[in-house]
């Protein structure tokens, strides 16, 4: 019996040594994967994380970070699969929930994103990041009152967060509270004068006020910091549309689409360009495509309805105009009366 006991002790020590070696190896693979990821070397990052997972099939940090590799390459479905695998291994692994919510957001699966964020909130009720992200999702869903509440909570927890201030300002803009929106955006610039998104949003406020030259000045300021930002280029194109400088508008909008072929706002604006140039069939095609890409684009039903009416499709036009009213777009009662 004594011999057997000694053998068991030796075997246990051997297994413990193997386990320690495996732990060290997988941690090294994780570190090297993280280094490759930080350098945007996605192929190497994927290889190192996969090696770590071979050692431990439920090594959640490596699985989660493999999801990030896919996310950074806009392969959101694959990213979600990895995040889900991490969650299956550890149902309380919060990083995976937060990251999966980001991937759902990019796939426009906003309600799924919210479910992950609600779980994160239950575990981290004092995290300003959770409320900030909930605000982003609710803004996309055009639930502006709820989005505003989320951003307010985030700012109570982190009052000097520039991103939250900018996004709260943007929500106030969509709620047509231009002065309050402007105050948030200017406060953000007081904290960081190089915040290009703040200049871009201030430009949209001036566009709403009809101050097109001022709007152009502000969006150009945004573009000095990010000259190839597709949303800024698109917004400058929209301002040119409002000024009646249609070919300048088309140039910026086309450039925006080249840089981001899934930019629904740019397709909306190009559709509006075709409407203004009386190419109504083309306008209908572009606006329908914008709607398919993102049904929550501002005034999309209004513009689509007007384009359909211009082609003579009154029934379809009225359907879109009533949807515009339902979505609180800038549709007038006069337009709706014509559908009676």
Q: Any idea what the shape is?
A: elongated
Most strands sheet: none
How large is the share of residues in beta strands?
A: under 5%
Question: H/E series, N to C?
Answer: HHHHHHHHHHHHHHHHHHH
Structure annotation, total helices: 19
Poorly predicted runs are none
The level of helicity is over 70%
Report how far the terminal alpha carbons are from each other.
Answer: 97 Å
The chain-level structural class is mainly alpha
Query: How many strand elements?
Result: 0
Radius of gyration: 25 Å
Average pLDDT score: 93
Outline:
This protein has helices at 2-38, 42-55, 60-72, 76-89, 94-106, 110-123, 128-140, 144-157, 162-174, 178-191, 196-208, 212-225, 230-243, 246-259, 264-276, 280-293, 300-310, 314-326, 333-337.
Write up what this structure looks like.
This protein is an all-alpha fold. Helices cover 79% and strands 0% of the residues. The protein is built from 19 helices and no strands. The protein has helices at 2-38, 42-55, 60-72, 76-89, 94-106, 110-123, 128-140, 144-157, 162-174, 178-191, 196-208, 212-225, 230-243, 246-259, 264-276, 280-293, 300-310, 314-326, 333-337. The termini are far apart.
Describe the secondary-structure layout.
Layout lengths: L1 H37 L3 H14 L4 H13 L3 H14 L4 H13 L3 H14 L4 H13 L3 H14 L4 H13 L3 H14 L4 H13 L3 H14 L4 H14 L2 H14 L4 H13 L3 H14 L6 H11 L3 H13 L6 H5 L3
Comma- or semicolon-separated keywords:
340 residues; mainly alpha; 79% helix; 0% strand; elongated
